[in-house]
Amino acid sequence: MQPEKTDYLIVGAGIIGLTLAKQLMEKYPGRRVLLLEKEADVARHSSGRNSGVLHAGFYYTANSLKARFTRDGNAAMKAYCRENGLPLNECGKVVVAADESELPALYELERRGKANGVDVKLIDEAALAAIEPNAKTFRHALHSPTTATVDPEQVCASLKANLLKAGAEFLFSEGYARRGTRLGELNTVLTTKGRIIEAGRILNAAGLYADKIARDFGFSKNYTIIPFKGIYLKYSGAGMPVKTNVYPVPNLKNPFLGVHYTVTADRHVKIGPTAIPAFWRENYEGLKNFSAAELFEVLSREAQLFLLNSFGFRSLAFEEMHKYYKPFFVGLGRRLVKDMDAAGFTDWTRPGIRAQLLNTTTLELVQDFVIEGDAQSTHILNAVSPAFTGSFPFTKWILDEYLS
Per-residue pLDDT tens for 241-284? Predict the structure, then answer.
């Protein structure tokens, strides 16, 4: 079979693959851009299953890539939504403290936000009541007026439509099988349908499988992905429990933000998410997408983390598993507000899987974005939250740093 040739092959059509394609077509007009996607449409995994929150950029240390791209990405995504007539809820966010022990971390978030050039402000209880009457805090809260929510599926569908108009090509229901291994095939990919694609440059934005693909090209030697399942509970009662996003003070030693209230782009309220260790990479529901090999691989790694209690994994696992018990889960949301209609939180949302990178040498979760590559291929290994928010400037930077 003769290889099909393209200037750029992007593996994965989530938010990173889509925005990479957009940046490529704008920077290199006339070149062929081909997106390879194993699912039947775009954003079938993390990109279409995330909360839709556009983060402001105050969680991240000033020297991180996340800090660099979140603030600008927030503005860029808002602008894209306005230009394309997509839902945008500019509802803001408050971060509230449970007690005095959480105040130092709250003050650290304000410090990080100001260092990152983000509009954040410490407020007292009276000011909090004016912004969100139902939220409660101890002494101070942090207000982030630029936090917003969008519909991630609509954003990705819009990007797909605009890319098709601009001449990008998609191969749906056709995934990556392996890298070409014979002499002269080193920059080719064999697809799951037997197609051979020869690319001037290969960009790996495969999310949950990015580390595996990267290893075929000699990268991701010290990394592996550990999947965490995220689920929300949607409110179906009368009225709205809150009108702005309400978050707890997070544990700054890990990348999870804790159970919080999200006001969606269509003005629904949900609490969550969980961060439950999954048993295989696409462990969404029941035995769907079950892989015995992945089960062994993931459980072996999680057992190691549990026994060594790396980054507090043991206590994290116990607490997260408790969240399957709805009263416990709802109770975490109750801590953030004055009044809660617990019975109104009835419907579990569609699960999502966080493709969280683990450093296999240090056994620590990787907090920042990770990209590896050479002149033939580029691999986006840790594009976790807030990658959706920062996707436009993040992928522009990837092109500037790795493809120039």
Answer: 999 999 999 998 888 999 999 999 999 999 999 999 999 999 99
Q: Is the dihedral of CA 17, 350, 331, 277 positive or negative?
A: negative
Q: Which candidate, 65, 14, 42, places its Cα nearest to that of 400?
A: 65
DSSP string over 319-388: HHHHTTSHHHHHHHHHTTBS---GGGEEEEPPPEEEEEEEETTTTEE--S--EEE-SSEEEE----TTTT
pLDDT tens for 17-32 read 999 999 999 999 999 9
- HEC-encoded secondary structure of 68-104: HHHHHHHHHHHHHHHHCCCCEECCCEEEECCCHHHHH
How does pLDDT run across 180-191, given as a tens digit for each residue?
A: 866 566 689 999
Please write down the long-range contacts of 26-29, taking CB distance under 8 Å and 24 or more positions apart: 27/399
Tell which residue, 79, 92, 164, 165, has the closest CA to residue 131. Answer: 92
Extended beta strands in 160-305, E state: 169-171, 176-179, 188-191, 196-204, 223-230, 233-235, 245-248, 260-263, 269-272, 276-277
- Spatial distance between the Cα atoms of 223 and 2, rounded to a whole number of angstroms: 34
Q: What is the reported pTM? A: 0.96
* Three-point CA angle 382, 388, 394, nearest 5°: 65
Q: 355 vs 206, 210, 381, 398, CA distance in Å? A: 10, 9, 9, 19
Other beta carbons less than 10 A from residue 90's beta carbon = 12
Q: How far from 195 is each of 5, 180, 340, CA to CA, in Å? A: 11, 11, 55
> Binning pLDDT at 50, 70 and 90, where does residue 38 land?
very high
The model's pLDDT over 60-112, given as tens digits with 9 standing for 90+, comes to 999 899 999 999 999 999 999 999 999 999 999 999 999 999 999 999 999 99
CB 120 within 8 A of CB 156: no
Coil/strand/helix, residue 205: coil
Q: What percent of the chain has pLDDT over 70?
A: 99
Q: Which residue has the tokens 């419907």?
A: 347
